[in-house]
Design a protein that fits this description.
The structure is a homotrimer.
Chain A lengths: L9 H20 E3 L5 H5 L14 H23 L7 H26 L7 E3 L1 H21 L5 H25 L8 H18 L16 H23 L6 H28 L7 H7 L2 H5 L9 H15 L14 H21 L3 H4 L3 H4 L10 H30 L25 H11 L2 H6 L2
Parallel strand pairs in A: 1-2
Helix pairs in contact in A: 1-4, 3-4, 3-5, 3-8, 4-5, 4-6, 5-6, 5-7, 6-7, 6-16, 7-13, 7-16, 8-9, 8-10, 9-12, 12-13, 13-16
Pfam families (chains A, B, C): Ammonium_transp
GO molecular function (chains A, B, C): ammonium channel activity
Main location (chains A, B, C): membrane
Chain lengths: ~450, ~450, ~450
C-alpha cells in the first residue's frame, strides 16, 4: 500500500517555513558589499575619484552571471525534459529547487567563506557562487529525476547545499586549490552525491514505470534546448569567477575549444556504438557537454587550445564507455558530470604541477593566489589538487549516504514504483490529443474559410 | 452575421502606411546621439583623450539591453503560447506589435523626454526605453489575447504607446519620481490599460470558444520557455536604465532575491489552493514573475536583500488571491502585472520616504537626482511617488476606455465569438496529426532498416 | 538500387580523423594572443600599469560573442526545425558541423589573416570570426537540408570554410573593404555557395519525399525559437567585430531599426500574397531576418536610423518577390541570405562612396582604416566595395560547383529520393503518438486520483 502523494499541505508548509527562515536569516546576517552599497561605493568618489563606475564588479561579472543563470534555469531545466511525460516536473521542480538553493547557498557560502564583522556581504560574485552551488544540486536532481516528490527534493537541497559549502570551504580556503569552473566542487560533488542518494533510494520494481522512462520525438527537441544552452554558455560558466583580465578570457577560450572537440567525439561514438550506425539524441545531449566539465579546473591555467581539445576529446570518449545505469541514474549524470569531473580534477592537478613563471610570467600570481605569499610550489600544488579530489569524493559519497537514508523516510509523498516519471502525480496535466485533433479539424473547416473570404 | 476576418488588404495597408510614416518621421526628427555619432564621439579624442571607448554607454547598457530584448520577444511571446491553438498568433502578433511599438515609442518618448534643438537623439538607452514601452503594450496584449485581430492590436499599440509616453513624461519629468524598473510606468499602466480595453470589448458569448481557451501539454512547455526567460532576465530589466555603478548592481541583486522568494510562495500557494494539492503550470507561469514587478520601483534603492525577499514573497502571495477573470483577462495580467505593480509603487513610495544620507552617503544623489538641486525631501518624495500611482491608474483607465471604444468599431476584422483563440483565422495552419503518425510509421518501417543496414 | 545510408563506420572515422588532424595542427600552429596569455597580458603591469583589466578585449567583445554563439547554435539550429520530421537532424547536424567548422575556421582564417612568426594567435575576436565563418556554412546547410548525409555536410564544411577564408582574405586584406556584418563575406558567399551545391545535387525525383517537405504546427513553433533568436541578436552579430566605441554602438542601433522596419514589411507582404489574406509562418521566419543581412556592410557607417529603416523595409519586400525553389532550396536561403546580401553589398558601396570627413569627423579613420594611410578616397572605396561583391559571387558559385561535384560521389551515404527530410535514416527516433495517448489516459486515470487523495 503506497503512501499518499498528495502535496496539498506538505509542500506549502515546507516552502513557507523555509522561506520565512531564509528571510529572517537574511535580515539578520546579510549586507550589501562594497560594490552594491550606495554609501560604500561612493564614499571615495568625492575626492580623487579612485573608483570609476566601470570598475564596479558588476561590469566584469554580470554578463557571465546571466549566462550562468540561463544554464541553471533553462539549461538544466530543459535538459531533463527528455522524458516523455515528465516535462512539467523537470522544468518546474528545477525551478523550485533552484530558487530555494540559491538563497540557502548565499547563506551557507557566506558563512564559510568569510564573514565581515559577523555579516555576509553580497554582490554579483556571491550570486554567481550561489548559482554554482545550485548547479550541483541540480546535477543530483538528474540522478533521482522522476522518482522523488518535490518535498524530497527540497530536503535533499537543504543538506546538499550545506555540505557543498563545507566541501568548497575545505578545498578553496583550507587546501587553497584552484577550481574556478568547479570540476570538483560542482560536478564531481554533485554527481557522486546524487548517485549515492539514488543508490540508497534504489527501487527494485522500477521497471513497472519503464515505459515512461524514455523520450518521445518532441520531448527530445525540448531537451536539445537545454543541451545547446548549456553547451554555448559553458565558457561563461568556467570563467565567471576567475580573476579579471587574461584568466577570464583564457578560461572562456579553453572551454570553447574543449567543447568543440568533445562534440566531434560524441557524434563519432554515438554512431559507432549503435548496431545500425544511428545517432542517439539522448547520448548526444549528455556526452557533448562533458568537454565543459573536464576543463572546469584547468581552464584558467595555460592549458592551451591544443590541450583543451585533447581533454575535450577524451571527455567525449569516456562518456560512452562507462555506465551506472544499474543504480538507476535517470539522466546519466555519471557520464555527464561524474567521470568528466574526475578527469577535470586530474587534468587540473597535472596542469597546476606544470605551472611555472617561465610560462605565466607575472600572470602566475593571478592564477595561483599563493604565489604572492611565497608558499607556492607547483608540485605540492599538484598534490593538493589531487587530495582535493579525494576529499570531494568522500564528502559527496558520505553526504549522499546520510541524505539518502533521510529521504527514505515514508513522509515525503514519494511516487509509487508504478507511477514514477509521471507528471500527473504532482501537476494538473491538460490533455494533448484532443486539442490537436480539433485544431486540425477547425483549421481546415469550411467555417473558417468562409469567415476569411 | 460576423464581419469578414480577411486580412488581405487591411493588414498590409496598415503596416505599410505606418512604416512609411515612421520612416518619414525618423528622417525628419532622429539623429545619432553623442555616443553613436562618429564625429561627436571622436571630437575630443585628438587632444587629451577625455573619453575612452570603454566609457561609451554601449558597454554599460548593451548587455542589459539584449536581456530586455529577449524578454520582449521571447519572454512575452512564448509566455502567451500556453493556449492550445494560439501559438502562432501569440508569438507572431507579439513580434509584429513589438516591432512597430519600438519604433513608435522612440519617437514619442524622444518627443516628450527632451528634444535637442528639435531633434530626437538615439542610442542604447533610447533603445532600452523603447523596449520598455513596448513591454507595456505587450502586457495589454495579454489581456485581449485571442479575441482581437492584428489590425486591432496595431491600433491599440498606436494609442497605448502615445499615452505611455505622456504618462512617463508626467511621472519622470514633471513629478520627478523614480521608477527605473517601471512598476508604475510599465506594469501598472500596461495592466490597467489592457484590463479596461478588454472590459470595453467584453464578449458575453465568449464561452462559445471556451474549449480552446486552455492549455495542452506541449503548449505549457513552450510557455515555460517564456516564463523562465522573463524570470531570469528580470534583474537586467529593472537595472537596465539606473545610474551606472552601485545602483545598477544593487537593482539587479534586489530583483534576483525578490524573484527567488516569490517562486517559493508561488509553489506553496499553487499546491494549497488545489483540492488535490496539485501544482498548476499556468498559475506558476504567472505568479513566479510577480516578484520582479513588485521591486520595479524600489529595486534601485537600499531595499536590502531582506526587504526584497519580503516584497517578493508578498507579491507571489497576493497573485493568488485576486482574480479579474470576470472581465475576460486571458493571460491573467491583473495578477501578474496589475496587483504586483501597485504593490511595487507602494513599496517604492515607502522606501523613498525612508531614504536618508545616513544610509546612502554620497550615493544619495545617484538614486534621487533632485538631491543635488536641494529640493529633495524624503517625505515629499514618498508623497510624489504615491501621487504618481494615482496619475498612472487614471491615465491607464481613461486611455483604455477611449481606446477600447475605438477598437470596438466593426472595421478591424475581429474574430467572431465562436472562433476566438484560434490561429486558423489569421494564419495558414499546417496539420499536426498526420505528420506524427507517418513519422512513427516510417521511422520503424522495414525500408529504413534496410537502407541503413 | 540506393547505396547504404549506414553511418556506423563512415561518420565515426571521418569525425575522429578530422579531430585528430585539428588537434595536431592546433598543437603546432596556435598560440594565445596578447589578451589571453598570462605572461604577455601581465608583462607591463608591474611598472606603469599601462593596461588595465577592463581594456582586455574580452570585456568589449565577449557579450557580443555569446550572442553570436547563440545565433549559430540555437538560431540556425532551430530555424531549420520547421520540417515536420527533420528536427533531430536540423539541430543535431547543425551542432556537429558548427563544432567542426569553428575549429577549422580558426586555422584557415588565422593562416590567411596574418601569422605572427608562423603562429596563429587566438582570442575572443578569432572566436567571433570563426563563428562567422561557421554561419556561412550553416547558410549553405539550409539549401541542402534534408537531402544530405552528415558525412556530406562535413565534407562540404571542409571546402566551404577554406574558400570562405580565401574570399575573406581577398576582400578584407587585399581589396581593403569594409564588411563588419558580413553581407558579402558571410551571407552572399554562404547563400550562393549553397545554392550552387544544391543545384549540382539536383534530384529530379525529390517529389517522392514532398509530403515530408513541409511543417507541422509544433515544428513551426520550434522554428520560431530560432527565428526570434536570430532576429534579436542580429545587432550583436553586425557589431561584434567593428571598432570599439561609436562604431560598435552605431552598428547595433542601425541593425535594430532595420530589423524592426523589415518585420512590418514582412507581415504586410505575407498577408498580401496569400489569396485569403492569411499569414504564412514559414515566410515570416525567413523574411523578417532579411533586414539584418541587408545592413551587414553599411551598419557601421553613418547610415542613420532613417537609412537603416529604408534598407530594412526594402529587404523585407524583395524577400517575397524572388524565389529559387526550382533549384530545391529547402530553407529559402536565396530569399533570406542571397538577395538581402547582395542588397547589403550595394548599400554598403553607396554608403562608403558618400562617406566624408564632414559627416564622420575624426571618426572617419575608425570606420575606414585606410584613411590613416592617406590612400583613402570615397569614390574608389565605393568601387572596391562593388568589385568585392563580384569577387564573392564568383568565388561562391565556382566553389559551390566544385564542391557540389565532389559531394555527388556515391560514397557518403546520402538519403535516397524516397527518404529525404526524414530523421529516421540517421537517428534513433522514438515514437510520438503512443506516449501522448498513454499520458492522457494515465493523467486522468482513477489510480492517480486515488494516490493523491
Amino acid at each position: 500500500m503506497a503512501e499518499s502523494t498528495n502535496m496539498r499541505l506538505r509542500l506549502p508548509l515546507l516552502c513557507i517555513i523555509l522561506e520565512v527562515i531564509l528571510i529572517i536569516l537574511f535580515g539578520t546576517l546579510v549586507e550589501y558589499n562594497d560594490d552594491t552599497h550606495a554609501m560604500l561605493w561612493n564614499e571615495n568618489r568625492t575626492d580623487s575619484a579612485t573608483r570609476n563606475d566601470h570598475e564596479n564588479e558588476f561590469y566584469y561579472r554580470y554578463p557571465s552571471f546571466q549566462d550562468v543563470h540561463v544554464m541553471i534555469f533553462v539549461g538544466f531545466g530543459f535538459l531533463m525534459t527528455f522524458l516523455q511525460r515528465y516535462g512539467f516536473s523537470s522544468v518546474g521542480f528545477n525551478f523550485l529547487i533552484a530558487a530555494f538553493s540559491l538563497q540557502w547557498a548565499t547563506l551557507m557560502q557566506g558563512f564559510f567563506h568569510g564573514l565581515h564583522h559577523g555579516k555576509i556581504h553580497v554582490g554579483v560574485t556571491s550570486m554567481i557562487n550561489a548559482d554554482f552551488c545550485t548547479g550541483s544540486v541540480l546535477i543530483s536532481f538528474g540522478a533521482v529525476l522522476g522518482k522523488t516528490s518535490p518535498v524530497q527534493l527540497l530536503v535533499m537541497a537543504i543538506f546538499e547545499v550545506t555540505l557543498f559549502a563545507v566541501n568548497e570551504f575545505i578545498l578553496l580556503s583550507i587546501l587553497g586549490i584552484n577550481d574556478a569552473g568547479g570540476s570538483m566542487t560542482i560536478h564531481t560533488f554533485g554527481a557522486y552525491f546524487g548517485l549515492m542518494v539514488t543508490r540508497v533510494l534504489y527501487r527494485p520494481n522500477l521497471d513497472k514505470s519503464k515505459h515512461r522512462n524514455s523520450s518521445v520525438y518532441h520531448s527530445d527537441l525540448f531537451a536539445m534546448i537545454g543541451t545547446i544552452y548549456l553547451w554555448m554558455f559553458w565558457p561563461s560558466f568556467n570563467s565567471a569567477i576567475t580573476n579579471y583580465g587574461d584568466p577570464q578570457h583564457r578560461t572562456a577560450m579553453n572551454t570553447y575549444y574543449s567543447l568543440a572537440a568533445c562534440t566531434l567525439a560524441t557524434f563519432a561514438f554515438s554512431a559507432l556504438v549503435n548496431p545500425e550506425g544511428k545517432l542517439d539524441m539522448v547520448h548526444i545531449q549528455n556526452a557533448a557537454l562533458a568537454g565543459g566539465v573536464a576543463v572546469g579546473t584547468a581552464g584558467e591555467m595555460m592549458l592551451t587550445a591544443f590541450g583543451a581539445m585533447i581533454v575535450g576529446f577524451l571527455a567525449g570518449t569516456i562518456s560512452y564507455h562507462v555506465c551506472c545505469c544499474f543504480i538507476q541514474d535517470t539522466c546519466g549524470i555519471h557520464n555527464l558530470h561524474g567521470m568528466p569531473g574526475v578527469l577535470g580534477a586530474v587534468v587540473g592537478a597535472v596542469t597546476a604541477a606544470l605551472a611555472s613563471p617561465d610560462v605565466y610570467g607575472h600572470g602566475l600570481q593571478r592564477v595561483f593566489a599563493d604565489v604572492e605569499t611565497g608558499k607556492w610550489n607547483p608540485q605540492s600544488r599538484g598534490g593538493f589538487q589531487a587530495i582535493s579530489l579525494a576529499v570531494t569524493l568522500g564528502m559527496a559519497l558520505f553526504g549522499g549516504l546520510i541524505t539518502g537514508f533521510i529521504l527514505k523516510l515514508p513522509i515525503y509523498g514519494a511516487p509509487p514504483d508504478t507511477h514514477c516519471f509521471e507528471d500527473g502525480l504532482y501537476w494538473e496535466v491538460p490533455g494533448e490529443e484532443e486539442g490537436h485533433q480539433e485544431l486540425y479539424e477547425v483549421a481546415t473547416s469550411n467555417e473558417v474559410e468562409k469567415l476569411s473570404s
